[in-house]
Specification:
single chain; mainly alpha; 66% helix; 0% strand
């Protein structure tokens, strides 16, 4: 799990840098955001499953489609998932035992 956790962090940082890099390209940069926004949203949904991944996917799409995208959304999602999110504890499940007589 630790390797996968830090692999997600590396991927997230690279995705954030890619999203921010489009803003540095004059004239063409805003048009690249039209292509980058759905790609980033799909990637976010692939990286983080469940409801939080879907919500983050919508947020990253809106953030990337805007003219000024400077929020490191992927890194913030990693921090939420692995640092700040409440830990889920599994419920105890009863074990059924059948005795054949």
């Amino acid at each position: 799990m630790e390797k996968n956790k830090y692999k997600l962090l590396r991927q997230g940082i690279l995705m954030d840098l890619g999203g921010m890099a489009t803003g540095l390209i004059p004239v063409v940069g805003p048009f690249l955001d039209i292509i980058w926004a759905p790609f980033a949203a799909k990637k976010m949904n692939d990286m983080y499953d469940g409801t939080s991944g879907k919500i983050a996917s919508a947020i990253v799409f809106l953030e990337e489609i805007m003219l000024f995208d400077f929020i490191p959304t992927f890194t913030l999602m990693w921090l939420y998932t692995f640092v700040f999110a409440p830990k889920k504890t599994p419920k105890a499940q009863p074990i059924k035992i059948r005795v054949n007589e």
